[in-house]
Amino acid sequence: MTRPASHDGPPALTDLMVRFLAQRSDAASAAVELNGWEVEPYELATGYRIDPRAAWQAATCLLPAAPDLAPPPEWPALVQLPVALWAIPCAWGLFPQRLQQLPPLLAAAPLQRLLPASEPPALPGFAALRRWIAQHAAPAPLPAACARLLHDWTAAEQLLPPGEGNELAALHWLRGQHQRALELWDQIPERPHILFNRGMARLFFDQPREALPFLRQAAALWGPDHPWQPLAQLYAAVAQLRLAAA
């Protein structure tokens, strides 16, 4: 007797990968300008191009007055820049599409190997964006986020408004101060992005059993229309794979 397929369990990893990759590229309009979005003629080694509009939606979802914010100079070029980043916190200016290489997540080796061992150096170029950041002397969320994306760590710290625990933790995380970041996230009241960051950090500390509940809860609270849910589900699937292989 053939057993009917069940649709009650969690999505298969392949389905989550397809959904995540679909979020990264805009096949219909990737090579045109639309509503002021200038898309660079660049393709990632994987063959996928990141839609700057989708990245902007994810990058600003935690920012105050997000619908009214305009992208800074060179945003499309910054979005398309190849980076070696797998452990992506949910914070200002960051976006799930920053994850550009999936195979290292699926290897049997420890995930902690994918974390930078030291502070990453500043990204070269982006003179127009850096001039725009320099125009902001007082702390401001978007310039702080852009400085952090460029690995201009001192400027990012100086521009970070006070009292933003998640953003400070994300700054520590991206600078390679991972344990310090997790300690901060564990002290912040629970919200979906905090739950995600707690789970993400534990996953890359090779603690899949501890990571999985946080990631599942974040994905459930966000719902299918949230730009960060696909990454939460993908990380949760990776945690499940590692638990099954243990």
From TrEMBL:
<protein>
    <recommendedName>
        <fullName>Tetratricopeptide repeat protein</fullName>
    </recommendedName>
</protein>
<dbReference type="InterPro" id="IPR011990">
    <property type="entry name" value="TPR-like_helical_dom_sf"/>
</dbReference>
